[in-house]
Amino acid sequence: MFPTRLVFKNLLKHKLRVLLTVASIAIAVFLLCALQSLVVALDAGVREAASNRLIVQSKVSLFVYMPESYKAQLERVSGVERIVRWNWFGGYYQDPSNFFAQFATDADALLDVYPEIQIVEGSAKDFIDDQRSCIIGAVTAEKYGFKVGDTVPIIATLFPRTDGAAWDFRVAALYRSLKKNVDENTLFFHSQYLDKSIELGEASGPSGVGVFVLRTAPGVDQTALMSEIDAMYENGPQVVQTTTEAEFQAQFVSMIGNVPFFVNSIGTGVMIAILLAALNTMLMSAREQTRDVGVLKALGFQDGSIFGLLMAQSLVMCGIGGGIGIAMAKMLEPGMAKFLGTMFPGYEVTSTTLMMAAGLTVGIGVLAGIAPALRARSMHVIEALRATA
Amino acid sequence: MSTPLIRLRGVTKTYERGGEVLTVLNKLDLDIEKNGFYALMGPSGSGKTTLLNLIGGLDQGESGEIVVNGEDIARMDGADLATWRASHVGFVFQGFNLIPVLTAQENVELPLLLTNLSRSERRKHAEVALALVGLSDRRSHRPSQLSGGQEQRVAIARAIVTDPMLIMADEPTGDLDRKSAGEVLDLLTKLNEAHGKTILMVTHDPAAASRAKKIVNMDKGRLGDVVDNQPVAQR
After folding, report:
1. By residue range, what is the domain housing residue A128?
2. Domain co-membership, A80 together with A18
3. Which of A224, A309, B157, B176 could be joined to B180 by an S-S link, Cβ 3.0–4.6 Å?
4. Interchain contact, B113 vs A2, CB within 8 Å
């Protein structure tokens, strides 16, 4: 039989040392889960992008506007069912630190093209009918205490009002999203309100459309359709680039650099550092147990049991640390999601992340334990007993 | 003479140190009788402990045969030797060699993990062994909470808990004061006389050796006289 009791008693022999190592592993695993969840958040738009939506944007840059007239032309293209415009508004609520995304859009088309946007309070009809109204994601609404019927003043940066006042949007409804590709932080309002205000000289700012989102008909050859649209504007006035929604999201993420690689590099560094800490603890512990190993072998315990004894200590120590780290990552998920909500709206500690963390924890346990365990296993009983003298 | 319990023939053990081969035991022949109490004596480096380790299955020689109760342990591999040790030999070391994180009871129970006994049976056996060495009231104490003499008595309890036929004691009184040494030797004598255990004890101490029935003298890896010590032991 395996001396199970010895596994725990040896671990508890130097409580502070083991406690510090366990705490280090817990923090490292938590950090790893959090970093991986950021990558998941960044990737959410790509992963959950709709397959029946295409994005048309200026080939020059996302920040170069296309003429309004493109909308009518695109509507006539065979295979295009519906079009919705998206224009970045770039304002803030009361203070620049209170940032959340706002988009001028086509209200009725938005809810049609994006069925994942679900009105949970208020009325979609109210939003569609009132051009000065807006819908707000439930997360932002909860954060700032916005309720249906409230007026939300947004101070514009790209489209300032000529009287210097804020733009007022009446909250017609709050929404939640069924998929991660649409966050629950955004304020959507009517493009018509923006266009008319600029037209009447009540506000200033660039004219045109930032992005057209097209819903395509079932069975359409999207590659051919994208080529056709790009060809339509080959000679201007604004050359366009048509992509799938997934490509667009991936391109958007890549604009801020290769974040997944950066984040994964940090995570790898953290895990290597913690592996060395765990290995150091196990080497010290194994060295202190050399005499005990000799005694156990003299009593008749097999080399395999000795190997198992050391490996079990490493796995238990790393397992406890990793388990705490994983539990922390899951328990703090709502708080982290809220804290990172605006920048990483899709923050989620997925089961894949937890499995990966558990796997890495076991891996660290094995790597930290295998060298001292092999040494103890191969040590001759006389040599081990002499080490005591 | 009846068939010996242990029979050594042509046992040779060498060590290599700094490229030089040292012969620690040189073609050694020895018979150990069942229920005997042998003291191995001799100067440091004479090969006493090496001989004890070979008979106890802790080490293996280069040549020769070591037949214990009909089994040639010199031909066993490491795993078989470990299994054989677990059921046939109890060890008592000079430095006690108790596991410091375990209580006296847990230390004594340790060899029983290698048997098929249930948890409660293991506990009972350990309690009996501790009672035999007079330490029932110290079973929850850790080695650091015991005196040297008590630690060695716990080690003896651990050595006998599986009821082995052989007890190997390497300088069992070397680290003890006179009174504690006396208690340990009393115990070994009792185990030999009352419980029929065959005991091999390495010692430098003539007082300890006087408790044995036979004294085996060694020098430079060779056996000297085997002296019958019966009258002294009876005294």
Report:
1. 60-238
2. no
3. B176
4. yes
